[in-house]
């Protein structure tokens, strides 16, 4: 079996993981990315490494002539590495402070179950987070409507695996 686990850390978000039972896109389409790199110069591109900035932001880095070029594994868009480094986001002190306060609250609360209400409405099924917050919330809502007689809105279920 093949799988990919990519944790990513952003200073203003909790840690997130991207988990799938496939190879990373940068590996599955590497030949096409290399072809794209070859069209950018007369010399053979030298592969350097893969950069992963989050979902949809996976880049293969190449040295082509005197430039370091990144090619997006999803869109095949090219960007000069120097441009990316010049424009990198700066930490926001206020967001960092809020995140630290939130985590401090989580870590110092003696009993999570009494901390506050879970926020779930009785009868709404729990669906594991899939493809983002909005699709997951919409699935929960449709399932709730369907199970309470509001029409056959859900015909079947499937797993993404």
Structure notes:
The protein has 161 residues and is of the alpha+beta class. It has two domains: 4-86, no CATH class; 122-154. 34% of the residues lie in helices and 20% in strands. The strands form two sheets. Strands 3-4-5-6 form a four-stranded antiparallel sheet.
Keywords:
161 residues; alpha+beta; 2 domains; four-stranded antiparallel β-sheet; two-stranded antiparallel sheet; 20% strand; extended
Topology:
Layout: E1 4-8, E2 16-20, H1 25-28, H2 30-38, E3 46-52, E4 58-64, E5 67-72, E6 78-80, H3 81-86, H4 93-108, H5 112-115, H6 133-147
Antiparallel strand pairs: 1-2, 3-4, 4-5, 5-6
Unreliable stretches (pLDDT < 50, length at least 5) are: none
Provide the helix percentage.
Answer: 25-40%
Strand fraction band?
15-25%
Instruction: Write out the strand line-up for the largest beta sheet, numbering strands in chain order.
Output: 3-4-5-6
- Measured between the Cα atoms of the first and last residue, the distance is 12 Å
Assign an overall shape: extended
Number of helices: 6
Oligomer state of the chains in this structure? single chain
Order of helices and strands: EEHHEEEEHHHH
State the secondary-structure class.
alpha+beta
Radius of gyration computed on alpha carbons: 22 Å
Could you report the average pLDDT, rounded to the nearest whole number?
Answer: 79
The description of the largest β-sheet is:
4 strands, antiparallel
- Number of extended strands: 6
**How many distinct folded domains?**
2
Short synopsis of the structure:
By secondary structure, the chain is α+β, with helices and mostly antiparallel strands. Helix content is 34%, strand content 20%.
